[in-house]
Sequence to fold (722 residues):
Amino acid sequence: MEERVHNFNAGPAALPLEVLEEIRNSFLNFKGTGMSIIETSHRAVAFDEVINDAVERTKRLLKLGDEFSVLFIQGGASHQFCMIPMNLSLPNKPLDYINTGTWSTKAIKEARIQVEDVRVIASSEDKNFSYLPSGFTVDKDASFLHFTSNNTIKGTQWKKYPDGGDVPLICDMSSDFMSHPVDTRPFGLIYAGAQKNLGPAGVALVIIRDDMLKRIPNNLPTILSYATYKDNDSLFNTPPTFAIYVIDLVLTWLEDTIGGLEEMERINKEKASLLYEVIDESKIFKGTTDSSCRSMMNATFRLTDEELEKNFLSDAMKNGFVGVKGHKSVGGCRASIYNAVTIESVKSLANFMKEFESANT
Amino acid sequence: MEERVHNFNAGPAALPLEVLEEIRNSFLNFKGTGMSIIETSHRAVAFDEVINDAVERTKRLLKLGDEFSVLFIQGGASHQFCMIPMNLSLPNKPLDYINTGTWSTKAIKEARIQVEDVRVIASSEDKNFSYLPSGFTVDKDASFLHFTSNNTIKGTQWKKYPDGGDVPLICDMSSDFMSHPVDTRPFGLIYAGAQKNLGPAGVALVIIRDDMLKRIPNNLPTILSYATYKDNDSLFNTPPTFAIYVIDLVLTWLEDTIGGLEEMERINKEKASLLYEVIDESKIFKGTTDSSCRSMMNATFRLTDEELEKNFLSDAMKNGFVGVKGHKSVGGCRASIYNAVTIESVKSLANFMKEFESANT
Fold:
């Protein structure tokens, strides 16, 4: 086995070692075809099996009802920010958004480029997005209610999703998709850029409910309509075949090796606890968010002293902990502990933090 | 070395064996980072070197002037069909298109969704796109003149590009990009889906000239504006890092192993000649296009007898020649002989065709 670092990158991020080994081992000869997966036609039977398997595993893992379709669309979550208002706005019905951080803010900005009546019905911007808002009212006639399930940069995560009443929920689940079970019934659309919990950058997995498809205007550019992906099983044009292949391997690992989303959630809770316990007991590390809504995926924290923080980040890097620096827009520290980050990596980081504290107090 | 088939796929297609081996060998440890390329942050120095190298090699290989920028955009050529009219139409100036096959037709369809005055100034549809039109007149006040340099399905290729006068050319070069030198000066924009000559599916390489950037409306969705990619060096959102990494390796092979586009063209001509000589001398194989414009990338042909054609395709498959069946929309046979298809593979196919003819006449 090759030497591997402890990868706490926020995305693209760590992937399961057994998945990486499988890709490597069959890279020159995909399923006995005598060619690489990246040389294989998207119309080949061998690839058809891959994409169908990825769809079926997604349906099983999330226990999706028959009213949902699973689509693969290029462009990542940022592309969805544009497609959602374009496809799913109802005439003269406002778009409701909850603003809980950098990515929500971007989604709102893109909605406003296209639709006049975009309402931010709740926001935690007043306290630098360190908490999640409550006590808001959803417009009854809203086209949809959009929110971000996990805020990668700010380190917050909804434990109980906002209640939209009869208004369909639309959710950017990029950074905690497939990390725990979800009751998908209130959702009109769920989307997730792959590069956190699912696979390589370059594709978003989109789950859309049948009633949403009826909203799509028929004069959209073909490539920007959800109907195109639904009607062609995500094969209208050449899809990002390698990314979908890796997603299928990751979903296989999640279902067959881990044992599904309940077990994944248990492991993720255990991993997050290891870090938050260190932070809660520490005199030099402190969390940056309300502890009631801190993320199981992105543990954000600061050191009480700026010089110490610099030393911590530099020592972490030297000791093989990669990606522990916070996002450039907020600074500080962040350990992204997505599904594929092992409990051993998290234990090592927790121990390293404790040792650093001992040596520096 | 693993057993490899002769891959004549139309795209995704054959890639250089040395590139595939390099990907495999460093798959668990990219540039000594202790992680896979697909786990590496798009903000990491190691990836920055990759994308910058890919841009610089593109500029050197095509001898691009300083007025050109090289961008990486998700969604493939089909996504460009939508972005081009959205970004580059001038008010009250028609869009001129030349229709030479399936992909031109799709580009025209997408332009018409967005712009009223789209003119097809020349077409070879009357003879099932088996030739390339001449003697047409470009509107002097057109926003641009769009054409397809190589018609993957129909098997034709422009040997001398249409003259747009002062009207900038826009070209879909997906299926012959980087297969021969190009005088890029008359072009406002060149685009190419990667999955033929460049790398894996999931990204288009776009070359845009500075004066085109001034046309872009400022109210576009951010992700659909060329300015976004130009202003952020293709890193506005997470790019398809793996696809760009493979493109960089392919461009390295093209520049350092092959020796550049002049040499690549010489090899491609030799490969195409091997097949067209068999076709020209055959009593049972016949080309489907005018010989003056037949493609160096996609050799299309039929057999004189339908039963014989079925047998040929089935025998080809049995003998390790993959992807020789024509596109489902036209039938017949097609051998796609992109840059990475070796002369040995083409010789083997040419010999197989001759042997098949001997055995069946």
